[in-house]
Amino acid sequence: MMNSFRFRSIFTMSNIKEIKAAVRDEISKKVANLSAEERNRQSEIVKRKLFDLPAFKNAKHVSIYLSLDTEINTEPILRKLFEDGKRCFVPRYRKAGMEMVELHSMDDWNTLPVTKWNIKQPSFKDQRADALDLGLDLIIVPGVAFSPTGNRLGHGAGYYDKYLSKISKQFDKFPILIAPAFKEQVIDNVPTEETDHKIDVILHAD
Ligand SMILES: Nc1nc2c(c(=O)[nH]1)N(C=O)[C@@H](CNc1ccc(C(=O)N[C@@H](CCC(=O)O)C(=O)O)cc1)CN2
Ligand SMILES: Nc1ncnc2c1ncn2[C@@H]1O[C@H](COP(=O)(O)OP(=O)(O)OP(=O)(O)O)[C@@H](O)[C@H]1O
After folding, report:
1. Structure pTM?
2. Closest to 36 (Cα-Cα) out of 152, 163, 182, 178
3. 142 lines ligand 1 (CB under 6 A)
4. Which ligand is closest to the CA of 117, given by its number?
5. Ligand 1: does its nearest atom lie under 6 Å from the Cβ of 154?
6. I need a surface site. Which of 36, 68, 89, 126 has the fewest CB within 10 A?
7. Residues annotated in the binding site for substrate, as ranges?
8. Any idea which positions bind substrate (predicted)?
């Protein structure tokens, strides 16, 4: 009984990882094939939808990812957060895991170094306020594919899922999770595991 159960769960796990990798590849290719104009068009629409949400308007402490070209452009969102006087936190990752540290202004944003993945992020030498000490109302979450019901597939390192588990252990009030997406990233069946957190709102164009 014990053995067959163990065998089955190992089998299922390797299977889902392969499915996740295949979906990741397929959707990444679709996004890579979008023109810069189309990415800008969709980013503008998503931005406006986000600005209209009460969860966005009311948030005081916001975590936001600093986008790559293959993600909805978050630069104008960051600018708006600063204009509205909110405190902004951005991911800082390394092998050991990810934290969210404070970004102070667009000037600060302009001088950030980039990681091997070409993601802008503050240096680990910088002493910055940690969102886990202050609490977050809203997390704007990146990802590769999303389902309309809020399932999320990321880049496969598990950084966000692990971070969200940490938050849920530390705070009674869980932040609202919003994922901006190109419409090509929204698909009905996103493979998930038990450790995957559900997104509250998937925002996409059209
Ligand atoms: N703009 C943006 N920033 C973000 C994320 C994101 O998705 N978008 N992240 C969202 O999580 C974190 C970075 N995620 C990363 C995920 C994988 C690898 C990476 O090196 N992947 C290797 C394989 C690593 C492995 O197998 O363990 C590779 O593909 O070569 C790097 C960063 C934090 N910052
Ligand atoms: N809370 C957690 N505790 C321990 N392991 C976890 C947790 N969340 C995710 N993992 C593990 O991390 C690995 C990668 O997870 P997954 O494929 O879901 O990443 P992802 O959501 O695509 O990536 P990311 O969150 O970095 O964008 C998996 O093996 C998963 O089991």
Report:
1. 0.92
2. 182
3. yes
4. 1
5. yes
6. 36
7. 66, 71
8. 66, 71
Per-residue pLDDT 10s for the chain (206 aa) are 444 555 555 555 568 999 999 999 999 999 999 999 999 999 999 999 999 999 999 999 999 999 999 999 999 999 999 999 999 999 999 999 999 999 999 999 999 999 999 999 999 999 999 999 999 999 999 999 999 999 999 999 999 999 999 999 999 899 999 999 999 999 999 999 999 999 999 999 98
Structure tokens at 129: 């306020």
HEC per residue, 114-161: ECCCCCECCCCCCCCCEHHHHCCCEEECCCCEECCCCCEECCCCCHHH
Q: What is d(CA 45, CA 118) in angstroms, rounded to the nearest whole number?
A: 25
Q: Which residues sit in the known binding site?
A: 20-24, 66, 71, 152-160
Ligand 2 centroid from CA 39, angstroms: 27
In eight-state DSSP terms, residue 62 is E
Query: Measured from the CB, is residue 155 less than 6 Å from ligand 2?
Result: yes
Element (H, E) at 176: strand 176-181
41 CA to centre of ligand 2 in angstroms: 31
Q: Is the ipTM of this complex over 0.95?
A: no
Q: 184 Cβ partners below 8 Å, 6+ apart?
A: 27, 30, 31, 34
